[in-house]
Amino acid sequence: MKVEGRPTRTIWLDDDGWSVGILDQTKLPFRLERISLKTLEDAARAIADMEVRGAPLIGVTAAYGVALAMRTDASDPALKEVLRVLLATRPTAVNLRWALEDMAARLEPLAPGERMAAAYARAAAIADEDVAQNEAIGRHGLPLIEAARQRKGAAPVNVLTHCNAGWLATVDWGTALAPIYMAHDAGIPVHVWVDETRPRNQGAGLTAWELGQHGVPYTVIVDNAGGHLMQQGEVDLCIVGTDRTTGGGDVCNKIGTYLKALAAFDNGVPFYVALPGTTIDWRMEEGVGHIPIEERDAAEVATVTGSNPKGEPATVRLLPEGGRVKNVAFDVTPARLVTGLITERGIAKPSRVGLEALYPEHRAPREKTG
């Protein structure tokens, strides 16, 4: 997608051919800052501190973190420790586990002297695969917006999204925003309702920024406004992303997603979730009570960071001193509230049968009878 008019990815190899460049998303939207990851510790910090975020991008960053670590020590014990350190950085996003298991499967059979080059090659391949998957998600989701346009005539199609599931959450294109970008590029009038997404404001800060960079019309709303807009007929469909989707179709996404799904269900608004197959946790059938839900620092709720009149970042406190905080980062939306899952292979019904129809390689073995 575009930043300052130029095509840009969220992660890349620097000119030295081995360090890894990223956009520091903690500085957006007030400052566009590119930083370089040179060690395992740099990659782990970038994931844990949310300099990179979004399930697909977390997975790619972890893969590159393995490659960086192999430059220092590629022994069996070192590889095992690298995988442990990176896996502990964020507990909810399943792409992290997927990427690390993929890297382990490819590196463990190799001699230590072969691991560094193989790790860099595989990390780059995972990044390219992510771009291809997200572009395919966009192609499969585009007809949903086209159909809404046909129903509305000349009026813009209004899509509501939550958190940031655009290209900043991936390597390029994004998941939930990929169909929106394709619709915009195809000349379809589309407008996005952007939930602010407290407490980290990924909607107001990141989604709004990237939509604006690409020229897509948007309006930021407070998190509790979505239901009202749906009641007023001002939302044609919802598209959100996900950090983990169970094999049974339950969806774990940024806190507040469940409430949007309830409002959409009550008002007959289609509620779609966009995801690559790498975000599906085939080992898990139900999400509520089973997916580990990350709890983050209370400071994210107690304070807010913005820009002062001089254009400088500034953090202010919102709560009384000593006020108690519970900062739950994700919630689970049951499959019954989801209209469909937009994947790189097509749109699936939110169920084991629906997902297995698109991913037959994950079908559970059937018992023989007779």
Model description:
The protein is about 40% helix and about 20% strand. With about 375 residues, it is α/β, with parallel strands linked by helices. It has two domains: about 1-130, Four Helix Bundle (Hemerythrin (Met), subunit A) (Up-down Bundle); about 140-360, Rossmann fold, CATH 3.40.50. It has a seven-stranded mixed β-sheet, sandwiched between helices. A four-stranded mixed β-sheet has the order 13-10-11-16, with helices on one face. Helix 3 (about 75-85) runs antiparallel to helix 4 and helix 5 packs across helix 6. The radius of gyration is 20 Å and the shape is globular. The N and C termini lie far apart (about 55 Å). About 45% of the residues are buried.
User: What would you say the CATH architecture of the largest domain is?
Assistant: 3-Layer(aba) Sandwich
**Uncertain ranges:** none
CATH class designation of the largest domain: Alpha Beta
The SS-based structural class is alpha/beta
**Helix tally?**
11
Give the count of structural domains.
2
CATH homologous superfamily of the largest domain?
Answer: Translation initiation factor eif-2b, domain 2
> Mean of residue pLDDT?
94
Shape: globular
One letter per element, helices H and strands E, the order comes to EEEEEHHHHHEHEHEHEEEHEEHEEEEEH
